[in-house]
C-alpha cells in the first residue's frame, strides 16, 4: 500500500515538474513577445497631435472606411484637386505622428495636381490590428478604391512613407504593379532584415529587446521570412524610387541606407537618392511645412514631375494659379 502511494507521489511530482517546465517555456515566449511589443509600442503612432487639412488651406478630406482582403478596416482620407494628374498615397510610420502630418505635403501635391490619400496602416495605428507585412494589403485596399474612380483612370500612383511607412511603401511597390513609383524616407527593407543587420553589422548599434530574428519572424505574418530578404527588392523592376536618408540617423543607420540603395540599383536605373547631414529622421527640417526646406522640396517636386512627364509645366502653374486652396 505504501509502495502504491510512493509511486503515485512520484508520478505526481514528475507531472508537476513537467507542468512547471512547460509554464516556464510559455512564460519565456510570452516574455519575449512582450519585450518586442513594448519596444514597438514605444514607436506607435502618436495621436496626441492631429492636424486639420483646412489649416493648410485644403478642402476637408473625404473620410474613407475601406476593408482589406482580410476584412480588416482601413481608414484613409482623400483630397482631390479639380484636375488630377497623379496620386500620392502617404503612409504613416511607427515612430511618427498620424498621417494627418502629411497635410503640408498634400497642399504642395494639390498645387501640382496630385490627389493625396493619407492613411495609417495596420499594426501601427487605429486601423484594425494585423501582423506585419499584411500592411501592404491596407495599401492595396486604397489602390482598389482608386481603381473604381473614373477621375483616376490611367493616372500614376506614387506611394510615400517615412520610417516604417517608407518600408511599407517599398514593400507595396514590390508587391503591386499598380504602383508606378515610391518615395521612401529613412526606411529599410524589413524589420527582420534591419534587426539582423543592426545586431551583426551596424555601427553604432541600437538597443533592441533580448530577442532573436526568429522571435521577430514568429510575431509577423507567415510569409515574413520570404518577404524579409533584401534580395526581394528586385521586385522594384525598373520603376522610379526616391530614397532619402540622413547620415547620423539614430533610428535607421546610414550604413543600412547605403547597403539598401546599392542593392536597389541592381534592379532599377530610376533610383534617386537624397542624403542630408546630421540626424534628420524625417529628412525635411520641418516636415509639416515641406516647402520651408528648399533642397528637400525641390528634390521631392522634381521627382513627382518626372512621374508625369506628359503633363506640361504650364499645366502645373495653371493648376496652382486657378484652383482654390
Low-confidence stretches: 1-27, 40-45, 124-128, 221-229, 312-325
| N-end to C-end Cα span | 92 Å
Radius of gyration: 23 Å
Instruction: Tell me the overall shape.
Output: globular
H/I helix tally: 10
Strand content: 5-15%
Number of strands: 8
Could you estimate the helical fraction of the residues in percent? 25-40%
> How does the helix and strand content classify structurally?
alpha/beta
Spatial sequence of strands, sheet with the most strands:
1-2-4-3-5-6-7-8
Element string (H = helix, E = strand): HEEEHEHEHEHHHEHEHH
Main beta sheet, described?
8 strands, mixed
What would you say this structure looks like, in words?
This protein has 325 residues and is of the alpha/beta class. The chain contains 10 helices and 8 strands. An 8-stranded mixed beta sheet has the order 1-2-4-3-5-6-7-8, with helices on both faces. The longest helix is centred in the N-terminal third of the chain and has 40 residues. The protein is globular.
Amino acid at each position: 500500500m505504501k509502495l502504491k502511494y510512493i509511486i503515485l507521489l512520484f508520478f505526481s511530482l514528475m507531472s508537476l515538474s513537467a507542468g512547471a517546465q512547460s509554464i516556464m517555456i510559455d512564460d519565456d515566449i510570452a516574455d519575449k513577445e512582450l519585450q518586442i511589443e513594448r519596444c514597438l509600442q514605444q514607436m506607435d503612432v502618436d495621436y496626441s497631435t492631429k492636424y486639420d487639412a483646412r489649416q493648410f488651406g485644403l478642402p476637408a478630406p473625404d473620410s474613407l472606411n475601406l476593408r482589406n482582403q482580410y476584412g480588416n478596416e482601413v481608414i484613409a482620407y482623400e483630397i482631390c484637386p479639380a484636375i488630377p494628374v497623379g496620386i500620392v498615397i502617404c503612409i504613416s510610420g511607427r515612430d511618427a505622428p498620424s498621417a494627418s502630418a502629411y497635410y503640408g505635403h498634400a497642399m504642395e501635391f494639390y498645387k501640382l495636381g496630385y490627389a493625396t490619400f493619407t492613411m495609417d496602416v495596420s499594426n501601427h495605428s487605429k486601423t484594425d490590428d494585423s501582423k506585419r507585412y499584411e500592411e501592404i494589403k491596407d495599401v492595396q485596399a486604397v489602390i482598389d478604391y482608386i481603381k473604381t474612380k473614373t477621375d483616376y483612370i490611367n493616372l500614376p500612383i506614387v506611394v510615400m512613407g517615412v520610417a516604417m511607412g517608407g518600408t511599407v511603401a517599398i514593400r507595396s511597390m514590390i508587391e503591386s504593379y499598380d504602383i508606378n513609383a515610391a518615395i521612401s524616407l529613412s526606411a529599410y527593407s524589413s524589420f527582420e532584415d534591419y534587426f539582423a543587420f543592426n545586431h551583426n553589422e551596424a555601427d553604432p548599434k541600437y538597443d533592441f529587446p533580448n530577442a532573436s530574428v526568429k522571435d521577430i519572424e514568429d510575431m509577423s505574418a507567415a510569409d515574413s521570412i520570404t518577404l524579409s530578404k533584401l534580395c526581394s527588392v528586385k521586385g522594384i523592376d525598373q520603376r522610379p524610387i526616391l530614397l532619402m536618408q540622413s547620415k547620423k540617423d539614430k533610428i535607421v543607420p546610414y550604413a543600412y541606407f547605403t547597403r539598401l540603395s546599392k542593392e536597389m540599383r541592381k534592379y532599377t536605373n530610376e533610383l534617386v537618392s537624397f542624403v542630408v547631414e546630421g540626424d534628420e529622421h524625417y529628412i525635411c527640417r520641418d516636415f509639416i511645412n515641406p516647402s520651408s526646406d528648399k533642397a528637400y522640396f525641390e528634390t521631392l517636386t522634381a521627382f513627382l514631375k518626372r512621374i508625369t512627364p506628359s503633363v506640361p509645366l504650364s499645366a502645373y502653374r495653371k493648376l496652382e494659379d486657378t484652383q482654390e486652396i
